[in-house]
Design brief:
Blueprint lengths: L1 H24 L15 H12 L7 E2 L9 H11 L11 H14 L9 H10 L6 H17 L2 H11 L1 E3 L2 E2 L1 H9 L8 H9 L14 H16 L6
Parallel strand pairs: 1-3
Antiparallel strand pairs: 2-3
Helix pairs in contact: 3-9, 3-10, 5-6, 5-7, 9-10
């Protein structure tokens, strides 16, 4: 019994030490309180990938504050990507648990469980390649984001750095590119269409005829209507 308790104590100390080390070696997000990121790790990765293929890569991004983005799009993105965003502290343990169960069953990464805070952490600082170590880093940075930044600021950053197509980053650029209007003027249908492609914006576009996109858009609109978001 003593050996078991000693083993558990050593294991616990190892886990705590591991996370403490990661906490101190990961980036400090506190400057983001007042500064907008100029370029993200994801943008750099896309640029390097294009360069290796001998292609030019142009970044289309126009920063907008939350009040300059349609509330329809804000709600559609929350429903699509992280419906419990305002009730968790960076990690959605319910989704994470289900994700781990499914990944173990399939013996590979098949289910995403990243919150918006985790996606901000990944896009800003990490490689898009899926590894267990990257997931640990993503979780640590997400917790730091939640500690130093307000929920609205994290959401604002996400809506401005999210990838919405080849070289298209942020709600404003996506809105202008796909619909020829500002993000503030988006309709519920347009908002749901944009939110529906976030899982794979390089494969799908808002006008995609894919059943996957249609189902996602219909689900988002249905939830928005149920919650009274579509009422004037």
């Amino acid at each position: 019994m003593r050996k078991i308790l000693l083993f558990l104590l050593i294991f616990l100390l190892f886990i705590i030490s591991f996370f403490l080390i990661l906490w101190f070696v990961t980036p400090d997000p506190s400057p983001l309180k007042n500064q907008n990121p100029k370029i993200t790790a994801l943008m750099k990765f896309r640029m390097e990938t294009a360069k290796k293929k001998g292609r030019k890569y142009f970044i289309n991004q126009r920063w907008k504050s939350l009040i300059e983005i349609s509330p329809y799009l804000i709600n559609a993105v929350l429903i699509s990507e992280d419906d419990r965003f305002f009730s968790h502290y960076g990690i959605d343990w319910i989704e994470l648990k289900e994700s781990i169960k499914k990944d173990i069953k399939k013996k590979r990464f098949v289910r995403g469980a990243s919150t918006i805070s985790q996606q901000v952490a990944k896009n800003l600082y990490l490689s898009p390649r899926k590894t267990i170590f990257r997931k640990f880093l993503e979780i640590i940075i997400a917790l730091k984001l939640e500690m130093f930044l307000s929920k609205n600021r994290i959401l604002e950053i996400y809506l401005n750095i999210a990838e919405w197509g080849n070289g298209i980053y942020g709600a404003e650029s996506a809105s202008q590119f796909y619909f020829g209007k500002s993000a503030k003027e988006l309709s519920p249908y347009e908002s749901a269409s944009l939110a529906s492609i976030l899982p794979n914006p390089l494969k799908y576009s808002p006008d995609s005829k894919s059943r996957f996109i249609k189902r996602r858009r219909e689900r988002i609109l249905r939830i928005m209507e149920k919650r009274g978001i579509l009422k004037d």
